[in-house]
Task: structure prediction
Amino acid sequence: MDDFTSLRVLDRFKWLFQKLHIDYAVMRKILQLKLTMDGRRMPTVFNGSRVKKEGNQFKKSLWMYGFYGLLLLTPFLFLGDQYIFFMSILFSVLMFIVMTSMVSDFSAVLLDIRDKSILHSKPISPRTLNAAKLVHILIYMFMLTGSFVVIPLIVSIFKHGIVFAVLFLFDIILISCLVVVLTAFVYLFILRFFSGEKLKDMINYVQIILSVAIMVSYQLVARVFEIVNFDISYTFTWWHFFLPPLWYSATFELMLNNNFSIPIIIFTGLAILGPILSILLYIRLMPAFERNLAKLLSDSKRNRKKSLGLNRFWAKVLCRTKEEQTFYLFASLMMKQERELKLKVYPQIGFALIFPFVFIYNNIRSSSFEEMSNGNMFLVIYFSLAMLPTIVPMLKFSGTYKAQWIYGVAPIQNKFSIYSGTLKACLIQYFIPVYLVLSILFILIFSIRILDDLIVVLLAAIAITLISYRLFDAEDYPFSQSHEFMQEMSTFKVLAGVLVVGVFVLVHFIFAKIPFGLLIYIVLLAVGILIGWNKVFPSGTKVGSTS
Result:
């Protein structure tokens, strides 16, 4: 096994782990094994001669975060020396990206119990096991955060000096630790009070709640400052103590602007002590966390009759053949039972629910509610459609991907019924609930006059789902790939899918200005979907044949 650079860096802090009564040698060996396994990939048998490349796909995707850092963070470094302002915004963006990644990408690692049967049979303390899991996540979080801030960090040296850059780096380390530990505390809380299927459901609900909370807190930071004639002023209020971006921006205000006001001193203290105390508390609670993780292995039977009956109803309504109905039901069941898939998808649902209202709220601040309700602000509902280009490519991943051989031996008459049934299930299981909630709320805000517009949005969602399917690798069967390959998803294709949503918004706006334009657009969309669906999913193609 390789002696990874991250482990050699970790060796310098061996004394710290030993003081915390963690068996460092054992923890290091576990980490070495985990990092080695992260870099290995099993070829996908079912894709013929197409062999997946070996290597850690997460590391290969880090350049994308570097590009995001250049675009999103660097501009804030040129806003002068009002550190409490521009560093609060910068840290808000940074924490938004890091916490979103933690919730959507690393929660599965934090809650992973697959190595339990192997490691727990060995003379290894629960504290050491949990420390290995936490450090494993932190290594990747530091890689992600490091790639995100490397360009802004270099720019800050030339713009604000070496002291600023060192302080910036120190704060980044503290933020990464704080994000991981706070997420662990949330899961520790729900593991304590729930078990079985209720626990698994609650974890997925927490994904949505955390996503919404991240977005709301991001908006709150922007409301802290008053900008009048380009003059920025800050007035302390007690609830600012609950905004971590302010903690870390205060460190710059204290060290570089010599601001020794009481709130700034308290913020700085929270920035340093918050992560340290959180880590110490988490270490004390490690054994309880590990014990409660065992609840994920328990399985309490739930009544699925109502859910199954509803799925069968939709299968008969939406699917043309018995075979397509079968794969619709299969995909619906997988989407409800596949825990790792839900850990990836549910945060997207949370963002889809909250994003439209963030823009509505921002609009109300600059105009009256009456002006907004009579305008075209309802088009922000299209932000909920941005979840589709992200979710559709996830449908080919599964924790039970090794069962993909069933596609080759099952008597499938038309292989495209697999894809079409899965996409229809995706729309019903993931998008329609979000669409219905938003539609009801938007009708209450904008009145029944937007009913035609909501029909257009629904048809646009179906079209975007179809386009997203074509943008990505359409040769992979649903639920046939390991989640380890999710990092291989093309970022540019996802962005292209999101840009397609923008095109639909523009076309919708243009047709809305034409007399009877929406009715014409509805007909055009419906006809286009029917033609496109039949062309993308033709009948009579067996599994293994080419089209």
